[in-house]
Amino acid sequence: MSVLSDKSDNSDSPVLVAPHDSYVGSIDQGTTSTRFLIFNREGEPVASHQIEFKQYYPHPGWHEHDPLEIITSIEDCIEGAVKTFETQGHSARSIKAVGITNQRETTVVWDNETGEPLYNAIVWTDTRHQNLVRKLKARLGADKLQDLCGLPLSTYPSVGKLLWMIENVPKVSEAYEKGRLAFGTIDAWAVYRLNGGPKANVFVTDPSNASRSMFMNIHTLKYDEQLLDFFRFDMAKLKLPKIVRSSDSKAYGTLTTGILKGIPIAGCLGDQSAALVGQKGFSPGRAKNTYGTGCFLLYHVGDKPVISTHGLLTTVAYDFDGKPQYALEGSIAVAGSSIKFLQNNFGFIDSSSEISVLAETVEDNGGVTFVTAFSGLFAPYWYDDARGTIFGITAYTQKGHVARATLEATCFQTKAILDAMAKDSGRPLAELAVDGGMTNSDLCMQTQADLIGIPVERPRMLETTALGAAIAAGFAIGVWQSFDELKNVNIAGVKTFEPKINKEEREKKFGRWEKAVEMCRGWANE
Ligand SMILES: Nc1ncnc2c1ncn2[C@@H]1O[C@H](COP(=O)(O)OP(=O)(O)O)[C@@H](O)[C@H]1O
Ligand SMILES: O=P(O)(O)OC[C@H](O)CO
User: At a CB cut-off of 8 Å and minimum separation 6, what does 295 contact?
Assistant: First the structure.
């Protein structure tokens, strides 16, 4: 386990002991919304602001964000939360640092001379480059990639999205040819713009984000020539952000505009790593599952990467002090987004919180299984040719059955991931810590406990992702100096869901899911 007590050897991040009324801000830039939260030293959020931004789906399988709208949403959230904070009688000056956490893999490209984006951001769920990825899989050396970078080749990491843009968007290929093409995930883009863009040119990322690109060697935390050669990038033409520690008082610069102008950005973590930190997953064997737009189970494996042989990813959990910690990850592309889908596309509900009410209008799923493979199926299956499929519809089927089957889909895939994780780690989990928007549904969490046969523990305060980024920033400036100081954070009010069905029933249900998963393959093969 990495500890922060010996931070004196980190010359980039001097420990400054902060006064007692210090607060830390956290930018949480998710797939569907941006938030800014302000945490006190007890790790409690005291003020927040959230903005949903526009999702662009220009063609089937395509999913984009406007990079400038994302920056505006961050700035507006900061203003909104700080105003609330001030009305509570606090001074904005008591916010000592800001952390950033973000949807990972989503790919932004910009002109490094003007700082302007050259295309919409391609979101992590996007599958437009499926054929490009298939060609890469056939290339000599493809079988070596996962050992180097921890990720299997799929549409999920940033690399395929970047290659697609270079091949298909003239402005992007021109910038590449002129050596002006800057690539970043949302963290790098936001840090760059919040620092004022090309003038300051703060162009950095942290290892938890860089480990999602397929450019970074998971063992050395450096960009890897073998990887870059495999993808045939000309490094004289492509600008990549410098990889720095996840907690650093200087490397991420400062906010240059707005109400927090001059405040350092001192922490940066991909959102799933941030949730692990926010759940205090600081030692090997700790795990968390976050049910947001997608759902991501991270299992802390210690200071050495474990390369999965059962369909999981290897990722950097965090690097606070030059002693990086690693996690095994099970990624589910569609979780809360399937509920939004029933709301926005089918009109079954008016808001996500109504899903449980609709599901409770019926006793069970009525024989319906919904494989929500909108972007293919991610872990542990990696079926790029699967698409969303509903099985078992009869004249008996009601909306409530589909609602139940929708909640169950994420729970079944989580079971498949836990089974894979037990095989890779040799240590099955005894309980599952959860967070994220979808965990507001008691029905969903009870279903989850039933299907995995271990207790599910939901904290009272669900903003663990934002808390994780605040912790990264707070460590850098000395608001907290050791993991031990955080041990009481968010422990009151944990709700435990105990499994209520027996093993035989569980296996029977899971068997039907596995059958459905096999049957939804091959649809997107052309
Ligand atoms: N009460 C609820 N019951 C079930 N799902 C919910 C509920 N409230 C929110 N959600 C789901 O949670 C997701 C948002 O979770 P959040 O953690 O904010 O995600 P993200 O960080 O990806 O934007 C939405 O997709 C929504 O459908
Ligand atoms: O928006 P979320 O919370 O579902 O997270 C997105 C992930 O980081 C994608 O890898």
Answer: 289, 331, 332, 335, 336, 410, 413, 414, 436, 438
- In the prediction, which pLDDT does 132 show? 96
How far, in Å, from the CA of 104 to the mean position of ligand 2? 6
- Cα dihedral: 67, 73, 75, 80 (round 10): 180
Contact 451, 507 (CB under 8 A): no
The model's pLDDT over 96-105, given as tens digits with 9 standing for 90+, comes to: 999 999 999 9
Which residues lie with the beta carbon below 6 Å from any ligand 1 atom? 30-33, 292-293, 336-337, 339-340, 352-353, 355-356, 436-438, 440-441
- Asked if this assembly's ipTM is beyond 0.90, the reply is yes
Residue indicated by tokens 């790098």 = 188
Residues in the chain: 526
Both 373 and 508 in one domain: the answer is yes
Q: Stretch 79-95: mean pLDDT, rounded?
A: 96
Is residue 19 predicted with pLDDT exceeding 70? no
Per-residue pLDDT for 372 more than 90? yes
* CA 402/CA 350 separation, integer angstroms: 16
Relative to the alpha carbon of 342, which ligand is closest?
A: 1
Instruction: Please state the pTM of the whole predicted model.
Output: 0.93
What pLDDT, in 10s, does the model give residues 393-410?
A: 999 999 999 999 999 999
Are residues 185 and 225 located together in one domain of the fold?
A: yes
Structure confidence by residue, pLDDT tens digits, 450-479 = 999 999 999 999 999 999 999 999 999 999
Atom of ligand 2 nearest to the CA of 465: 3
Q: Does residue 402 share a domain with residue 323?
A: yes
The pair of structure tokens assigned to 187 is 């963290």
β-bridge pairing 107-111 and 64-65: unpaired
pLDDT exceeds cutoff 80 at 95: yes
Higher pLDDT pick, 109 / 429 = 109
Q: Can you give the residue range of the structural domain that contains 416?
A: 280-458+494-526
Ligand having the closest approach to the CA of 35: 1
My answer on whether 266 and 294 are in the same domain is no
What sign for the dihedral angle of Cα 274, 278, 283, 288? negative
Among candidates 315, 31, 312, which has minimal Cα distance to 186?
31
Distant-in-sequence, close-in-space partners of 502: CB < 8 Å, separation ≥ 6: none
CB-count burial class (<10 Å; 0-12, 13-18, 19+) for 258: middle
If DSSP codes are grouped into helix, strand and coil, which group holds residue 199? coil
How many CA within 13 A on the CB side of residue 26? 34
For residues 178 and 312, state if they share a domain: no
Task: Give 381 Cα–ligand 2 centroid separation in angstroms.
Answer: 18
